Amino acid sequence: MAVHIRLARHGSKKSPYYRIVVADVRSARDGRFIEHIGIFDPRTSEPTLRLDRDRLDHWIRCGARPTPTAARLLKQPSATG
């Protein structure tokens, strides 16, 4: 089973926030996921990124690959855990 770390869009129209999730590649963007590991909120004056680094490291060791957008966010040093 191929697993990706990606963003799932939530929130109302024109005011989104995103959950960082681990999901099967075949699942829909906002559909079924395996685990929720963080939140990204671009609406705040300083975009908020909260992330569980332990679980992220676990999933990367298990073979999960981040999507390009998720990879860009995960490289930010401002991610709290």
Order of helices and strands: EEEEHEH
- Describe the largest sheet: 5 strands, mixed
Order of strands, main sheet, comes to: 4-3-2-1-5
How far is it from the N-terminal to the C-terminal residue, by CA? 27 Å
The portion of residues forming beta strands comes to: 35-45%
The stretches of 5 or more residues where confidence is low (pLDDT under 50) are none
Total of DSSP H or I helical runs spanning 4+ residues: 2
Structural class: alpha+beta
Radius of gyration, in angstroms, nearest whole number: 12 Å
Overall pLDDT level:
90
Quaternary organisation of the protein chains = single chain
Secondary structure: helix percent: 10-25%
Q: Specify the overall morphology.
A: globular
Q: Give the tally of β-strands.
A: 5
Task: Summarize, please.
With 81 residues, the chain is an alpha+beta fold. It is built from two helices and five strands, in the order ββββαβα. The longest helix is centred in the C-terminal third of the chain and has 9 residues, at 53-61.
